[in-house]
């Protein structure tokens, strides 16, 4: 080993160091990317169910369908375009080609910005199937004028009206009996509506199979006046599978939640570990430098606090105080400093009697100067390694608390996603895409910090460096 | 030796006391303790009302009698004084688990008393934690010794790395993965609980049933403590093996097994126990989460349910009990340490 060897060379000289540096860089880049592209108050979007209403609920990722050899039905939104009109009516249409093995998870008709002068327009939506059956699925009439309101009356301007196809919907029972008649099967009409609308009885299994072909989705708007207008009509078809990670029970895109978790996790880890290292190092240096009463008080306190079981106390305090994520971190720090204070004290005890500290004191340096200019720098590499080493404990503590339902609800974290998945019964329903990825990300982050800490070890304890 | 143990005991008692005072002060300052006591009194008053109503017919007089009773009871539990004046009594109530009734949890016999509920949960947790700690101590020693003999080899480097980083991984989450794999997909193990329902007849079948249910939770807990155990054993054995007295023993021509047992393992034993002591909090914390994952009817699962249903009495009792358990386990390990290390025994 040469003296010119830089810290970088030491860290990247070992496999754990290399793995740690590579993973931390990746995590940091992802976090920066997320901070630049996603809104900072993403927590509010995440907790607003209406923002996720169009997405299918608890469906696996798209790639998993291809792995099992099934052609999934993808999420899409078709905007109906005007094709013809006549006196008092207008027809809007869109063509839908279905060639998947699975039917859409749900169907929603969205109508926005309707404006009328006297009576509200009536919107009739029907689906013309490839086998010729014409299924009326929705009849939408905006509410009429309210007392004291003056024309033009505007409806559904702020957020669109949503009509979701359900078992009670008009046309579904008609479709069930029509299908039974035509294909000689026994359908009750209690099958999932999208399965009926885009399916036909399978003579072999007796269930429903997807009817492939070209469908025509048609909306007819009946207006009482030519000035009346309908902003847009669209049809949302929920995917049988969704995105890269799938969705949760509310229909939230798990990918976004997991991505947002990167800066949150790194923030939690760094914030808590920098704070713990600072406090632990300060108390350790003080007790090692001043000895006497200061030392006794700090070290006795450290001995007691070090033996307080962390998780139960954190559970209790989070339960009673319902803290924000910053308070959770502060509580974590309050119970985590002793280990470092004890070790730093013993290191300071060895540094203080060395000649250069003595020399510095002899020329009249103040205690503060000696502590910060001569003692602390010697601990630098060790403290750096400790900072990195503590980060995963903080991230895991937050994840553990979140898993027990005690997280800060305003900020989505990996632990909270995991908890919701577990509480929704992921283990009994096999929602693997909901609980495996957040755990994997927690593991990778822990691995990154732990590996980097191992790579920093030769810097922190130079005697251990292999020549 | 006794002075040393007494000092450790004093320090650990101080830990218990600190936690108790923290519990009581936080509860008092946030008004929780007042609400808890008022709930207890309200419950008792409701029960007494019927008895009183039979004796006192005049409704106004009845109300007055009830108000008197209420004031008297409030004085008795100290509600007429501010919370900080009640700290000593409240600490005693927590210590004796005299905390009244749980909100929604029940013991299997249907009792709502906190003491009864806890009494049947404690053994389940102790069995889970101790068996997994024992397994990982023995396994850790065996693997650690095996690695120490191959120090520097590829296997040594890989396993040492894996055990060093394992404490940074969410081990309880492995429980979820195990459940999805072995309970949901392969259906080899139950998805939770401690006994099948209905439980099988006969003590032998019952034991087998419990073991079958305990397999995955114990496996999960072992993954939490195995890494540190391997790491501590390997490093300590390696350090001792490089000592001069080991070389002397080998030079004397003592058989390898005698050197391993008497000259290496014996002096390495105390620091290995220290390793166990250090992994204790992680195991206890891991047990809370693992019990939750596996629906194991221990204290950890109770904790989760208490948090979910807002049962503050149980949360307080459990926090205290976990600290107590930690302190007791810690002290037991200290005693073992004293037994193993002749230097502190003098």
What does this structure look like?
The complex is a heterodimer of chains A (about 475) and B (about 350). With about 475 residues, chain A is an alpha+beta fold. Chain A contains 16 helices and twelve strands. In chain A, the strands form three sheets. In chain A, strands 1, 4, 7, 8 and 12 form a five-stranded antiparallel beta sheet that branches. In chain A, β2 and β3 (about 90-100) form a beta hairpin. The model of chain A has no long low-confidence stretch (mean pLDDT about 90). Chain B is mainly α. Chain B contains 13 helices and no strands. Chain B has helices at about 1-30, 30-55, 60-75, 85-95, 115-150, 155-165, 170-185, 205-240, 245-250, 255-295, 300-310, 310-340, 340-345. Chain B is elongated and about 100 Å long. At the A-B interface, α8, α9, α13, α15 and α16 of A face α1, α6, α7, α10 and α11 of B.
Q: Quick summary of this structure?
A:
The complex is a heterodimer of chains A (467) and B (346). With 467 residues, chain A is an alpha+beta fold.
Mean pLDDT of chain A: 88
What is the share of helical residues of chain A? 40-55%
Oligomer: heterodimer
Point out poorly predicted stretches of chain A.
none
**Span between N and C termini of chain B?**
6 Å
Q: What distinguishing features does this structure have?
A:
heterodimer, A: 467 residues, alpha+beta, 5-stranded antiparallel sheet, elongated, B: 346 residues, mainly alpha
Secondary structure elements and pairings:
The complex is a heterodimer of chains A (467) and B (346).
Chain A: H1 7-11, H2 15-37, H3 42-46, H4 62-67, E1 76-79, E2 81-86, E3 89-98, E4 107-116, E5 122-128, E6 134-140, E7 153-155, E8 161-164, H5 172-183, H6 193-197, E9 199-201, E10 208-210, E11 213-222, E12 229-237, H7 254-290, H8 292-306, H9 310-321, H10 325-334, H11 338-351, H12 355-362, H13 367-403, H14 414-423, H15 426-429, H16 432-460
Antiparallel strand pairs in A: 1-12, 2-3, 3-11, 4-7, 4-8, 4-12, 5-6, 5-11, 9-10
Helix pairs in contact in A: 2-7, 2-16, 7-8, 7-10, 7-11, 7-13, 7-16, 8-11, 11-13, 12-13, 13-14, 13-16, 14-16
Chain B: H1 2-29, H2 32-55, H3 59-77, H4 87-95, H5 114-149, H6 154-166, H7 171-185, H8 203-241, H9 244-251, H10 256-294, H11 299-309, H12 312-340, H13 342-345
Helix pairs in contact in B: 1-4, 1-12, 2-3, 5-8, 5-10, 6-8, 7-8, 7-10, 8-10, 9-10, 10-11, 10-12, 11-12
């Amino acid at each position: 080993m040469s003296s010119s060897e830089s810290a970088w060379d030491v860290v990247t000289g070992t496999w754990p160091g290399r793995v740690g540096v590579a993973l931390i860089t990746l995590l940091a880049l992802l976090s920066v990317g997320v901070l630049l592209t996603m809104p900072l108050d993403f927590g509010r979007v995440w907790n607003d169910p209406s923002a996720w209403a169009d997405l299918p609920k608890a469906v696996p990722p798209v790639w998993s369908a291809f792995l099992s050899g099934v052609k999934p039905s993808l999420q899409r939104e078709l905007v109906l375009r005007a094709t013809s009109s006549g006196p008092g009516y207008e027809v809007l249409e869109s063509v839908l080609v279905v060639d998947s093995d699975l039917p859409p998870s749900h169907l929603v008709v969205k109508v926005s910005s309707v404006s009328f002068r006297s009576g509200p327009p009536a919107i009739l939506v029907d689906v013309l199937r490839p086998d010729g059956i014409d299924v009326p699925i929705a009849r939408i009439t905006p509410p009429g004028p309210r007392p004291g309101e003056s024309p033009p009356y505007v409806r559904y301007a702020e957020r669109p009206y949503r009509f979701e196809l359900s078992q009670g919907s008009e046309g579904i029972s008609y479709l069930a009996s029509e299908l039974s008649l035509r294909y000689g099967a026994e359908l009750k009409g209690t099958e999932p509506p999208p399965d009926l609308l885009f399916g036909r009885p399978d003579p072999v299994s007796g269930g429903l199979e997807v009817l492939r072909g070209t469908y025509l989705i048609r909306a007819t708007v009946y207006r009482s006046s030519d000035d009346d207008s309908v902003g847009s009509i669209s049809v949302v078809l929920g995917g049988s599978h969704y995105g890269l990670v799938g969705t949760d029970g509310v229909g939230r895109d798990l990918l976004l939640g997991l991505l947002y978790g990167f800066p949150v996790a790194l923030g939690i880890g760094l914030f808590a570990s920098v704070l713990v290292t600072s406090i632990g190092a300060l108390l350790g240096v003080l007790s090692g430098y001043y000895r006497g009463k200061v030392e006794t008080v700090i070290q006795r306190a450290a001995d007691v606090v070090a033996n307080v079981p962390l998780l139960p106390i954190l559970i209790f305090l989070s339960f009673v105080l319902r803290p924000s994520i910053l308070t959770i971190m502060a509580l974590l720090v309050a119970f985590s400093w002793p280990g470092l204070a004890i070790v730093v004290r013993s290191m300071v005890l060895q540094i203080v009697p060395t000649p250069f500290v003595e020399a510095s004191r002899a020329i009249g340096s103040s205690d503060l100067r000696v502590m910060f200019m001569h003692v602390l720098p010697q601990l630098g590499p060790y403290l750096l390694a400790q900072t990195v080493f503590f980060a995963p404990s903080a991230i895991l503590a937050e994840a553990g608390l979140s898993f027990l339902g005690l997280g800060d609800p305003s900020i989505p974290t990996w632990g909270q996603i995991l908890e919701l998945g577990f509480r929704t019964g992921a283990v009994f329903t096999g929602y693997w895409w909901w609980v495996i990825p957040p755990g994997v990300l927690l593991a990778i982050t822990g691995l990154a910090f732990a590996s980097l800490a191992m790579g920093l070890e030769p810097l922190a304890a130079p005697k251990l460096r292999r020549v | 030796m006794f002075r040393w143990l007494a000092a450790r005991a004093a320090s650990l008692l101080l830990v218990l006391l600190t936690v108790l005072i923290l519990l009581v002060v936080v509860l008092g300052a946030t008004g929780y303790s007042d609400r808890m006591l008022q709930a207890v009194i309200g419950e008792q008053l409701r029960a007494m009302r019927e008895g009183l109503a039979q004796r006192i017919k005049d409704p106004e007089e009845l109300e007055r009698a009830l108000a008197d009773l209420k004031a008297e009871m409030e004085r008795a539990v100290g509600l007429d004084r501010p919370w900080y004046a009640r700290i000593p009594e409240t600490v005693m109530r927590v210590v004796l688990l005299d905390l009244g009734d749980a909100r929604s949890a029940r013991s299997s016999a249907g009792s709502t008393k906190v003491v009864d509920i806890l009494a049947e949960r404690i053994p389940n947790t102790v069995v889970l934690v101790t068996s997994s700690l024992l397994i990982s101590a023995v396994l850790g020693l065996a693997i650690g010794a095996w690695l120490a003999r191959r120090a520097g080899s590829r296997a040594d480097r890989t396993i040492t790395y894996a055990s060093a980083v394992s404490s940074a991984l969410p081990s309880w989450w492995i429980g979820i993965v195990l459940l999805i794999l072995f309970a949901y997909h392969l259906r080899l193990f139950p998805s939770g609980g401690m006994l099948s329902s209905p439980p099988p007849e006969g003590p032998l079948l019952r034991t087998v049933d419990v073991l079958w249910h305990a397999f995955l939770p114990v496996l999960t807990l072992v993954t939490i403590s195995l890494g540190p155990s391997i790491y501590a054993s390997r490093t300590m054995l390696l350090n001792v093996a490089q000592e001069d007295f080991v070389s002397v023993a080998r030079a004397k021509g003592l058989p390898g097994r005698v050197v391993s047992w008497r000259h290496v393992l014996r002096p390495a034993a105390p620091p290995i126990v220290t390793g166990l002591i250090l992994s204790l909090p992680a195991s206890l914390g891991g047990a809370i989460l693992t019990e939750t994952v596996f629906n194991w009817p221990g204290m950890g699962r109770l904790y989760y349910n208490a948090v979910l249903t807002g049962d503050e009495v149980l949360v307080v009792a459990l926090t205290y009990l976990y600290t107590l358990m930690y302190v007791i386990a810690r002290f037991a390990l200290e005693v073992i340490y004293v037994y193993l290390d002749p230097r502190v025994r003098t």
